[in-house]
Structures are given as C-alpha cells and as structure tokens.
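QA checklist item 7 of 12: single-chain prediction sanity check.
[x] sequence parsed
[x] length recorded as 287
[x] structure emitted
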Amino acid sequence: MKNILLCTDGSDFAENVYKYGAWFAHQFNAHINVLLVTDIRSKQVASTANLSGSIGLGASENLLHELVELEYKKAKLNNQRARLILQNAGEILKNQGIRDVRLTNKTGFIVDCFHEFEQNSDLIVLGKRGEAADFASGHLGANVERIVRITKKPCLVTPLEYKPVEKVLVAYDGSLTGKKTLQFLVNSSCFQKLEIHLLKVTKKETYPRAENRINEGKYILETAGFNLISTIREGEAEEVINEYIIEQNISLLLIGAHGHSRIRDLVISSTTIQLLRSSNIPVLLFC
C-alpha cells in the first residue's frame, strides 16, 4: 500500500477521515492525497440571457448585472471554502505526523471525478456521511454508498468518532472478497502487533460448513504468523457482528463487500451495507 486517497467535503465526519488515513499511512509508509470535489452546480454562473427570460424583457440591466455578480460572489466563496477545507486537512495531517500530503480540489461530481484518482490509489478513505449528516443520521451518505458500490479498491468508511486501532475483527465467510481480506492481513505484517479476531456467522443447519470456513481462515492467518481469537456464532450476520464489536471492544472491522451470490460482482452484499450504516467503528471493505 503506497498511495492513500482521502475523500473530504469538510463535514463533521472529515476530521476522522484524516486521522484514520494518517494511521494507515504510518503503518504502510504511504503517501496521502486529499481530494475535495466542489459540486459543479455550486459554481455555475447564470447568464444574462437566462435571467432576462426569467424576469421579462422589461427588466433593468442593473438588476441583471446584480444577479450575475451575486453568482460570481457565490463561486468565489466556494473557492475560498475549498481552500480552507484543504488547508485544515493539511494541518490535521501534519499534526498526525504526516509530511507527504497532496491537496487536490476538483470541480464536478464526486462519483465522476473519483475514477481519475482511484486508479493510482491503494486505499480509499471516506466518512460515513457527508454534509447532510444531521438530516440523515440513520443512513449511509449517498455518495459514500455509490463509491463503495463502484470501487475496485479497498475502501475504509470512517465513523464520527475516532478511537485508536487496537483490536481488529475479520468477519469471514469464505467468499472471494473474504479471501482478499485475509490476504491483506497476510501481506500486512504491521497488523501482527494488534489483537486479531476471526468471526464466522452461521445458521444452525450450516454449522459444519462454518467450521470448515473458520478453520480455513485460521490456517491462512496462523501460517502467516498471526495469533488469533477465532469464533463461530449463530444468528443474523449484522446483529451478531455488531454484538461482537461491542462485547470485545473492537476498533476496526474488516469485511468482504460481496458474499457467495452469483451476482456478487454487481451487487454489494446487503449485510455489508447494513453494517456500514449501523457500525460505530471504521469498516475496511474489500471488493
């Protein structure tokens, strides 16, 4: 992992995007790029032709001029806001001990601009919700959900509050993306100093198969030198995982984005989406 992309909008969730991004950058000696995308609609300036059509042919030219000036001032304020957000990001990252930071402002739509920066990134970090968080506290941010659905890179979704990463939970199901999760740990020796939990959630009738899955995961990680706490629990995946997080005071959840469905390459797991919505700890998602 050499390049980490932090997506920000300056919301209340942004500060912990920087802090968790800094933690990963320290672990992997990685570079950080902070991306702020200013919505293109906030920078569009009304033309006099459009305005004259709206208010009638008899409108004074002074009024048209004032309306256009207002739009230009709005665009100027948006540019100043973007500079302040990125300046704040740089200061927080500097205080976290990060020196290698690139600050980038683009105009457009985040989902469209995202592909340009995703290609050269090894990890995407973004807040659970954005500027409308106060109005959608029970939901995943719309842009966040779009990005985790389309990205092919590991994606870290961060909560409102920061806590040091000490205990890591791997929710393992044996799927292809589940194996990517294990491979990430195998390739990341820095995680060996942390407490690693391996959890398989199952239904009573599939318990024997779950034992095979958990043994598979244990073998892969123990062979790589990890000391594990492994567990099989029965129940609904989202409920069991959240209960385990609280019970064991887990500080980071690793999970595959897709399960065993035949359409897993098209549709992100409903369990994963529910966990992203309900979890109060960062979730590292593998696609």
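[x] summary fact logged: The first helix runs from residue 14 to 28.
[ ] second reviewer sign-off
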